[in-house]
Amino acid sequence: MAISxxxxxxxxxxxxxxxxxxxxxxxxxxxxxxxxxxxxAPKSSLFPILHTMADTEYIAYDEDTKRxxxxxxxxxxxxxxxxxxxxLPLIEGEMRRVVETCNETCQAGTLDHGRVLYIxxxxxxxxxxxxxxxxxxxxxxxxxxxxxxxxxxxxxEAIGSLVxxxxxxxxxxxxxxxxxxxxxxxxxxxGFARDRQEVLEGVECLAVPIHRSNGHCFGMSxxxxxxxxxxxxxxxxxxxLSDAKDRLEAALI
Length: 253
Description:
It is a single chain. The protein is α+β, with helices and mostly antiparallel strands and 253 residues long. It folds into 2 domains: 5-75, Orthogonal Bundle (Arc Repressor Mutant, subunit A), CATH 1.10.10.10; 86-251, GAF domain (Beta-Lactamase, 2-Layer Sandwich), CATH 3.30.450.40. Helix content is 44%, strand content 19%.
């Protein structure tokens, strides 16, 4: 994002914001040269800004890769916003109830440029290895939360929000947009989305979409090892998620 002449009086401030925007959009980070190209600014102007931002931990610098990325303090600012704007304390309370009911790990996430951004997670006593972590993103088309949220869009909007070609973390992940649309239709009909070992081999996931009165939709899911997901467990998870959805949609006004 180049800085226009009209905003030259705030050039340094705008460059700080532009750097954060650029790094947030590039998960692998950016080199100095790449940041200069993104902002249309010379190294001599950006180096002192980057140095200060790294010293204060708003960005991080990797000596090995020579790349800058979002830092801890910027991440914590985002988390502080999430907790207020998303009603995270209330959401996490419902997630704990879900975990107590089905004894499996519960997660919450929102859609972010065709990917699911995980905003909360409550682990069960039966710890399992998962790909999701708070602040991490995964492809929406192969996660239960992603499918739950995408199912609330029109087919055109859902496909338009994805990054093509579709990433396939495992051989079970959907191969084509048409296959995904079939799964979204099933989700709309049943109210539940499912990840059938599409992100991680041996782990399945069920999710529901949850709506706020402002129109924002996020998802809540339960992850479970495939060998534990029998019919009784599936029904238990669906009921727990459905109850949490009803309570949250009534409370998150």
